[in-house]
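Structure, all two chains, one model.
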Amino acid sequence: MRMSTPKLIILRLFNITFGQFEPCTRLLRKALVWRYVTARPAANRYSPTSKFFEMSELAARSPLR
Amino acid sequence: MLVESLFAGPALATVPRVLGFIDRDPDSPTFGCCDRAYWHYRLIDMANSRAQEAGLLLTLAWLHPDPGNPFSGKDVLLDWIRGVWRFWLAARNADGSTVEVYPNERSFCATSFSAAAFIESVRLLGGPAGFEEELRLAEPTFLWLGSHANPDVANQMAASLHALSGYAALTGDAKITAMVRERGAEMRALLREDGAFVEYDGLDVGYQTVTLSSLTAVTRLTPELLWLRDAIGRGLSAIEPCIGEAGEVDWRGNSRRTQYVYPRALVAWGSPALSRLAAGLEAGSLVNPCWLDDRYTTAFAVDYFLAAMEVHHAHEHP
């Protein structure tokens, strides 16, 4: 799920209000980790360290023309 | 080392990094998006359209004839390039302008440079054949560019002239051709007596080389702007004394404090400063595309590729 403008505004409002209190930021982090990592199958998890280019991709050709 | 390799080397080294910026999964809803912070990290709510200039970088990587170029002729690049331009077309505002930083922004800078990259990519890939649909869809962007301007910054005006000239050359569109003449006159008015193309009221050596690179492209696209060659010569003369023995510039004296030099125009017009850039690259001391951040590396690498291709072309057609 991509970031949208309404979601970003809601997130920032939370960050600068309830986010001042550490239990709230901890709760947010737990919710995000659950939503984007642990509740998902391994192949579909959010992983910032993935999807870089590998040379082996040059051998393939996608179905798009 | 050959001058061609000095410029092609950093450009080629940048390509795998830039490929990592691109969503290369054809099944993804953001296939072709080149802003990793948007499609992958999901940290921002919109993609920077300037990142789509990666489509031109991939085009040049696909074309560049260097025997050590692993991307040369690899057809998967053609799929990614088309995906990049389809995403660019789909992500524009309704009026054809594009965004760089915030939603509903109508960025003259991003629209000019991304449109110029689009048109150059299509041209280099043999367009308009094979890109008729993309060119048709792109027309509102060029009409928007022709009816908007930002005369405070010459480099953006030059990029818009490049984009308009390219579209006119590929499509023969009469409205856009008239806009090329108007934008050309506006561009000419930005050249001062001392050869500076003004950037917020002053000379900026780095941005002047960006401007001269775009104007060099325009000379290949339209024979109409007869004043261009003389203007480019004057523009080069204005900056050549500011480029040091190792290609460095004293950014403190630049109106926008730019630290780097785009080499393409210097190569194309045989500037004496070219040997100084080459010396800096050989010594490993010159700011080059590998040193820049994600926001600026792509456009800078494109110019390095274009400089390498200018050298190659000059050798083949002395």
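The interface with chain A takes residues 16-17, 19-20, 23-24, 26, 30-31, 38-46, 70-71, 74-77, 79, 82-83, 103 of chain B (CB under 8 Å).
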